[in-house]
Amino acid sequence: MTVLVTGGCGFIGSNLVRRLAARGVRLRLLDNLSVGTRDALPAGSAVDLIVGDIRDVTAVARAVEGVDAVVHLAASTGVSDSVSDPASDFDANVMGTFNLLRASVAASVRRFVFASSNAAIGEHPPPVDELRVPRPISPYGAGKLAGEGYCAAFAAAYGLQTFVLRFSNVYGPGSTHKTSVVARFIREGLQKGAVTVYGDGRQTRDFLYVEDLCTAVEAALAATGSGEVFQIASGIETTVLTLVTTLKTVSGRDFDVVFAPARTGDIARNVSDISKATRLLGYRPVVPLEDGLRRTCDWFLRR
Description:
The chain has 303 residues and is of the alpha/beta class. The protein folds into 2 domains: 209 residues, Rossmann fold (3-Layer(aba) Sandwich), CATH 3.40.50; 74 residues, UDP-galactose 4-epimerase, domain 1 (Alpha-Beta Complex), CATH 3.90.25. Helices cover 41% and strands 19% of the residues. The strands form 4 sheets. The protein has a 7-stranded parallel beta sheet with strand order 3-2-1-4-5-6-11, sandwiched between helices. Strand 5, helix 5 and strand 6 form a beta-alpha-beta unit. The protein is globular and about 55 Å long.
């Protein structure tokens, strides 16, 4: 199998690329290197890197030529950024995804795995599952929901085997440039001695170690069926204040907590029901939060 990974030099992409390369998968990457770097790629692996943007139809057409499957990770990922600049979010997350889907059909790609987000669902009493009616509360969530809709349409209209994976809050080694809460807390706590909590800290998230996420992507590349949506998470609800306490424990550092007003677009409670992914993909996350945070802190400290 030859697999195209968009955003393959980024946090999740580089972890996935290392994993797939070790299994002998032929890999091509499309990345504009706005965040990721070539240094993130596994040393000595035969990875074909195309430096280009998913908004560039010429680069996209070149990238999908001759591949069997696409794993679409490249995106504009900031909820707050999408609120302040929804047009840029739309260009990257809606038009970029559409460009890849259309090019995949034209190039006879068989399978398309789309990295979506729980932001597409919006506010619902947790745990959320695939049957909830999506009500996104940020432009980022709306863009991811649009991508899900196009995946469903391209599966039905053109026979492209699409799999939508709604990621929860992913963390782990390689997340230097991430603005998500775990990476931000580690940077702030280790470098500044204080972390900023938006809101009262009782808001909850479903934290997923990146290696567990990669197992779900691998499963989607091999699964039967098409047009499916899966919640990919740990299935465990954790408050932000519990995250702070656990980070202090695993890092051996004490740091202050500074509270700031809650941000527009942030969901109050978030945890997923992963039973469909377990049933149909054989997906079972295995890394506990404390272990994953320890590995992530150790990685940041080594850098």
